[in-house]
Amino acid sequence: MTRFSILDRSLVRAGQDPARALRETVRFAQQAEELGYHRFWVSEHHSVPGVAGSAPTVLAAAVAAATSRIRVGTGGVMLPNHRPLVVAEQFGVLESLYPGRIDMGLGRSVGFTGGIRKALGHELRDAEDFGANLEELLGFFTGKQQSYPGVHAFPAEGLRPQAFVLAMGAGADIAAEHGLPMVIGGGPRMDEAVARYRAAFRPSEWATVPYVMVAVNVAVGETAAQAEALQLPEAWSTAVSRTRGAFPPLSPVAEIQALDKSEPERKLLGEALAGQIRGTAGDVAHALETLVGRSGAAEVLVTMNTFDLGERLDSYRRLAQLAEGR
Q1: Section 35-64 average pLDDT
Q2: Are strands 212-216 and 218-220 parallel, antiparallel or unpaired?
Q3: What is the number of other CB atoms lying within 10 angstroms of the CB of residue 16?
């Protein structure tokens, strides 16, 4: 049976402050647990006005403290931004406090702009060291890291939070080489990346068989039009970010629909909505069945945000009901 999980980026809504967005993430995790979702992940973004989720391990700790059953993790910690020892220690603390519930999702992205990368103390080329840094990080948990003889990560050593690789670009190959589960977006390159991953996978003490999680934006509404409206605020903020260089807070659907959009803006909005899954329960069930069939995914990671929190919860409730019937 396919599992369903959630990735939340703590998006800010117009007229609200980041503190409220973070509190809403914690509340959303509690609701996700009540609805039966398998995992709840938070993300890492820096210097983005519309995204409050900048410190994923801190936020994951708050989420884990407020829940009791759902797995909690990161989607992900961007390893090029951090030293492996520090990441190991952070997840060691989380796993010690919440044993058997912590996921360590790891990505290879660096800051979006040169200024952010400089502030973080890293450059684009640091992403090329992801494989080596990943091996070092895993070694701190197994006690086998060789980069710094005599250095140990406490309380991480001997613990096993579940590790995942966010498979952007070469991520699928790195996940296979290290014997780790991978997370991949359901885009046009998914089939090729999944095939490479499965063919090259090397069993490890972290995973004995390949494990694929597909990440996709899913909205379930009473009508197809309602479902598309749910995805409009995030898609519009994405379109704006591609013209103005900054992802703004989410706006109400009616305000976005009333805007006199330029042709480039309409094109970017269409591109932002493309590839997402939406519609009635029947529409979504068919689309998910096709996606899972293509990828052989064991799990679907859903990331859908909209301006109205009640409407967001209703969509996730409909999806949970749909998952129960699969």
Answers
A1: 94
A2: unpaired
A3: 14
Name residues whose C-beta falls within 8 Å of residue 312's C-beta, 6 or more positions apart in sequence. 28, 230, 304, 305, 306
Tokens of 273: 């909505």
CA proximity to 156, closest of 79, 89, 85: 89
CB-based contact 74:41 (threshold 8 Å)? yes
Q: What is the CA radius of gyration of the chain?
A: 19
Find how far residue 180's CA is from the centre of its chain: 16
User: Dihedral of the CA atoms 48, 10, 60, 89 (nearest 10)?
Assistant: -10
Q: What share of the chain is helix, strand, coil (3-state, %, to 5)?
A: 50, 15, 35
In whole angstroms, what is the distance from residue 289 CA to residue 324 CA?
Answer: 14
Contact (Cβ atoms closer than 8 angstroms) between residue 273 and residue 231: yes
Q: Walk me through the domains of the chain, giving residue ranges and CATH numbers.
A: 3-212+292-324 (3.20.20.30)
Instruction: Tell me the sheet residues that pair with 42.
Output: 8, 74
3-class state of residue 70 by DSSP:
coil
Does residue 112 carry a pLDDT above 90? Answer: no
- Distance, in Å, from the CA atom of 324 to the CA atom of 326, rounded to the nearest integer, reads 6
The average confidence (pLDDT) of the chain is 93
For 116, how many CA atoms within 13 A lie in the half-sphere containing its CB?
Answer: 17
Confidence of residue 295 (pLDDT cuts 50, 70, 90): very high
For the record, the structure tokens of 193 come out as 């990346």
- Classify 312 as helix, strand or coil: helix
Alpha helices of the chain — where are they, by DSSP H? 18-35, 56-66, 84-97, 114-120, 130-142, 171-178, 190-200, 224-244, 253-258, 263-273, 281-295, 309-324
